[in-house]
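To make this tangible, this section ends with a sequence with its structure tokens:
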Amino acid sequence: MSDPRTPIDAVLVKHGLTAEAFCERLGLSPDTLRKWRKGLRAMSYPLAIRCEQEFGIPRHELRPDIFPAPRRRSPAPRKEPVSAPPA
């Protein structure tokens, strides 16, 4: 699998895991994983959190419907240096 299609596929490649090993680590059935990968079933809230902690997959990539993507913070406005009053 050279071009991961889903965040889960990317984790399998990155960590060198088989689908079976991934399921074993999370206590899932292979059928559940298959349904996630095909988009037939959504990952539960607790499992999205656990995948983020265990594998570093951002939760908003796993469940964008319940976890909004983090907003980018705009840089703070630059303050002009205060000049000393003329002597």
In short: The chain has a mean pLDDT of 86. The two ends are 72 Å apart (CA to CA). Helices lie at 7-15, 19-26, 30-38, 45-55, 59-62. DSSP finds five helices and no strands in the chain.
